[in-house]
Amino acid sequence: MVEIKSDDALAVMREAGRVVARALTAVREAAAVGVRLRDLDEAARAVLDAAGARSPFLGYRPSFAPTPFPGVICTSVNDAIVHGVPGDYRIKDGDLLGVDCGAELDGWTGDAAVTFTVGTPRPADLQLVETTRRALDAGIAAAAVGNRVGDISHAIGAVARAAGYGMPRDFGGHGIGRRMHEDPAVPNDGRPGRGYPLRHGLALAIEPMMMAGGGNRYRTDGDGWTLRTTDGSRAAHMEHTVAITEAGPQVLTLP
Asked: Which uninterrupted H or E stretch holds 237?
């Protein structure tokens, strides 16, 4: 069931979104060659704790997962697309790192992700990250009252197709509010004018995921969580929580 949020609820979600933004900033500042992924998780935990926020990631166990998720962030390196587990891996020069974070504050949730390079960047990685950001921007621009979910999906997919990038099947954005994952689903490709109608008070997590190799297939690591490209190509993930309003789309996960 899709829940339309009141303006008061969206205001609380905005505060949760600010916590997410601060956590992602802390992680990005802590990310350096030689740093362990679990150290980045600790940096994000400190921000959540200071804000009195709960992590919707920690202990989360959807139907596909063999174990509850052990961190407050997902850390996806190089060919990992999403859901990477923050363990003992130490970041290397030139790594491409995707970080996904959520926060629940006073019963409402925010969710966002960013991908960036650590150390010396590869030009191809910079292009992949920039294209994924443009796809996110295009999806957000389409999140307008009177449009439909398919308009968001089409806007994202058009950017990916023009760049020759692939997107993983079965994974995309989602509704968000009292829980991290709510209806409706927001695919990363689709036909315009189709799907759930966008109304004032609808909140969505819009999150393009792109694979440089151009395919749409992926595999799951032995941890049951990390999704990787099947061809070893690099991947990027960007996400914001967005409120649909009469005044236009409002990004809730900015600082």
From this structure: strand 235-237
DSSP string across 186-214: E-SS--TT-SSBP-TT-EEEE--EEETTS
Q: Sign of dihedral through CA atoms 99, 168, 108, 152?
A: positive
Local structure of residue 64 (DSSP, 8 states) = T
- Average pLDDT of the chain is 98
Q: Give the single-character DSSP code of 238.
A: -
User: What is the dihedral angle through the alpha carbons of 1, 14, 208, 146, rounded to the nearest 10 degrees?
Assistant: 60
Q: Which residues of the chain are under the pLDDT cut of 70?
A: none
SS3 call for 97: strand
Q: Specify the pLDDT at position 86.
A: 98
Torsional sign, CA 164, 134, 181, 146: negative
Distance between CA 205 and CA 198 in Å, rounded? 13
